[in-house]
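Changelog-linked ticket: zinc ion example.
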Amino acid sequence: LKIDVHAHLIPQTFVEPVTGETPLPVRIFASGTQQPIHTQSIRALSTDAEQLYNIERRLADMDAQLVDMHVLSVAPMLFVYDLERPQAIDAFQQINNALAEVVNANADRFVAIADLPMQSPEDAARELERAVRDLGLRGAEICSNIGGKNLNDKSFAPVWRKMEELDVPFFIHPANVLGMDRLGDFYLNNLIGNPTDTAVAAASLIFGGVLKEFPRLKFYLAHGGGSCPYLRGRWDHGWKMRPEGKVNITRPPSEYFKLLYFDSLVHGGFALNYLVDTVGPERVMMGTDYPFDMGDYNSVDHVLGIAHQSDAARFAVLGDTAQQLFKI
Ligand SMILES: [Zn+2]
């Protein structure tokens, strides 16, 4: 099976249908009312806004891209971490229910991972349990920071405990990135902010001791881990030479780094070879970022083109590892 672990969806219930290249209006209403609790319009689509919500179109695109299954995650615009209770719980439940409906209608092509109210970690743990046990979702997608908090913040422990108990993977996806005072031009918020914020997320899990305390957690990082695969040696060197990195961990960062997973979305053969050679083919899974304009829709070809590795390694990246991780 060829499985795309980085594929975004906005459930149709939150969208006023549009066609063509246009901002997509997205709205979440309080349950049973016409009272909006979240309103937004989404750009950054290269072709057709309906790709975000139209399932028939998605299935046709998957066929054209030789992708058998999507691990559906919401577009990061639905990290609605600014909502407060009880609206937050309501919104995330609606989102996850809608994801489950899409999966149930096409169970041979889709699995999905939940969106969680991380602004309220006890609620997030409860919603994760509901999403996995009641809805059949396979894990969760969280932002690389939660409203500006790094992922080693102690308040997130209830989520990590529940994640460990349920044995489900988490996708870490950048948004709300650091450094916006200097990344406003040239789309640098994405081109540099996204890979950098992802590296901060990984460093927080490693140096912050999250992976030491919860070594069975399975996190996978968007965009090939951003800049962090390239920084692994520097992190080990800094940990050895400096006291700051040793506050929470007694073993080198690379000992925790090797617990992470990565998608394949790096936009270049040399970079993909470097990633696979550095972290191991069993730690990389194909991701396209469908349907955004920053995606790679020749991912299958690019994975098959990985050098210095066996066919078994290429198939691990194409889908074998994802099949195990998401229990497909
Ligand atoms: Zn994405």
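Closing comment: Example verified and attached. The chain has eleven helices and eleven strands. Residues 6, 8, 173, 222, 289 surround zinc ion (CB under 6 Å).
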